[in-house]
Amino acid sequence: MRCVLITGGTGCIGAATVHALLQLGAERVVVASRSASVGLLRLWFRETLDPRIGLVRGDVGDARDVERLVRDADPTHVIHLGALQTPDCESDHARGMAVNVGGTLHLLDACVAHAKRLARFVFASSAAVYGLRARYPGPVVRESDPLAPVNLYGTWKLASEELVRLSHERHGVDAISLRLNTTYGKGRDRGKTAGVTRAMKAIALGSARGAVIPHRMAYGGRENYHYVEDVGAAFARAALMPFTGHAAFNLRGTTIPVADFLARIADVAGSLGLTRSVDLGIAPDAPVNPFVCDLDEARIVEAFPGMPRTPIDDGIRATLETFVAMAKAGELRLDPV
Fold this sequence. Notes:
alpha/beta; Rossmann fold; 2 domains; 11 helices
């Protein structure tokens, strides 16, 4: 029986990953989070949770907690998503390192000690391990390009990638790190790069209220986007599909200007009869996004040929339709949940 232990499994990407794991036939998914609450899983499992899901409380920053989680779950596969985001890492350096690096180390150590059936370890890394986009003169950024993170979050993601590699070399468990950029879609509420998702929320809420809720992006330039359902599918496939060895992969995505993404939102909203609720733009003083984009996807497509990449217009349409239904039911809000 395949049992997947997933940390951070009630957040945006975690909830999508749990859904995708069950679609791929995982017999048991143990979802660990600090609250052990349903969280954003409700967006994917509306009425009742699938009986194959088990919710457990655990803090990856606490070594004893992690040891208990792994011992009790006895997983065949582990997906490590649990981490603090950039603002939290910058506001509390010690806590950020304890969770984002220490948590990875705790989990790897616990797997060596207690997960005797473990076949695969998948780590949620980030394109933040790369440097600024200007550092890479080519049309795409490859996994083999130099890594030069520009903030603590990226530095700690890179440190965790190295811990995953070292654990693989010492103990032989197949291991994958997935590097992703900006996720959009239902459940994506937190962080600066949630702006395009919040733009779609503003349209849906405005339509439900018969009003216009303006939305202005805090930055412009170009950005690499992943639809949330694709991200969940990528982690599930990286965990369960055939693979041997160790690798770090860029996640499949699409790079376009932020302004173009907003224009596509407006076009799709118009096709859904929501034009009167559209007021989108980029703030006049918004800086240009300097961070890496144009991630090359050749290696992950070769390793996992079925990795999805939803066209942006289709992802926008699905997200808007979900948000409109939620707004009509009184279940949508602009503030993070």
